[in-house]
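Database export, one record per block. Field names are fixed; values are copied verbatim from the stored entry.
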Amino acid sequence: MSSLSMSLLRGAVSSPFKRAGRSGATLPTGRASLPPARSAPGPLASYSRVCGFTEPGVLPLTYPHVLGFPLAMRVMTGRAFPLPVLGLVHTWIDITRHRVLHPEDRLELSAYAAGLTDRRRGTEVTMVTEARLAGELVWESRSGYLSRHTTGATIAPAARTAAVTEDLPAVAEWQLPGDLGRRYGAASGDRNPIHLHPLTARLFGFPRHIAHGMWTVARCLAEAGTGLGTDAVEPGRIRSVRADFRAPLPLPATVTYAAAGAAFEVRGARRVHLTGRVTLDGS
């Protein structure tokens, strides 16, 4: 059994004994890490295929997050982690790479919990993942994960740094199949039950299973390689991305990818599901 599968099993066992929002909760202070290693060709190919990446020789900007996800899960399913991992909802992500990465790069990965924040709908943890080459920080991400619970207080919602961009012009329409969550879960290892099947999603308050936020971001970046708005973006030029997951994206679905300049969004017929912004080298 893989280390990620073991973490998921540990999370399933420990989650019923953890209570989000308890007074005085603290985070573990240690880091989980992996020694330097190249990206395995098979899993990378599967990930690229399900997300739509087609550029050879360049590691997708989002892929180190996938490589580091078992480490983040190891932290979040540990005994000292205060939130139940099952049902956590990814709410935002910031990714920055400090140099172009390639599949043959031997990345040393680490992950740790950076902070807890009370939100209107529950408690949010910030997780940090870092990638190094020969000790040099070359890639990093910060992610928010929300544990939903009744707060009993009026708390300001999370700040949104990505602009609201409902007027962005449509670039492409995507037909998302009902098995997308299972396919992405197989490629990435992220088998959170809220993404897999309507029955497992209902256990956590969702009427239907929802698309992975990280699939949605990755698919947007892959689409940007063919045209962010009207101009195609070379894959190695995207230096950073900020994305906010504004509303769950139930599966199956038909959604619109819209973009102009550095801004992009994914919207359905009634709501915007994701907004984001990229920065490019030289900008």
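Remark 1: Strands lie at 32-37, 89-97, 107-119, 122-133, 136-148, 170-176, 238-245, 253-260, 263-267, 272-280.
Remark 2: The chain is about 25% helix and 30% strand.
End of record.
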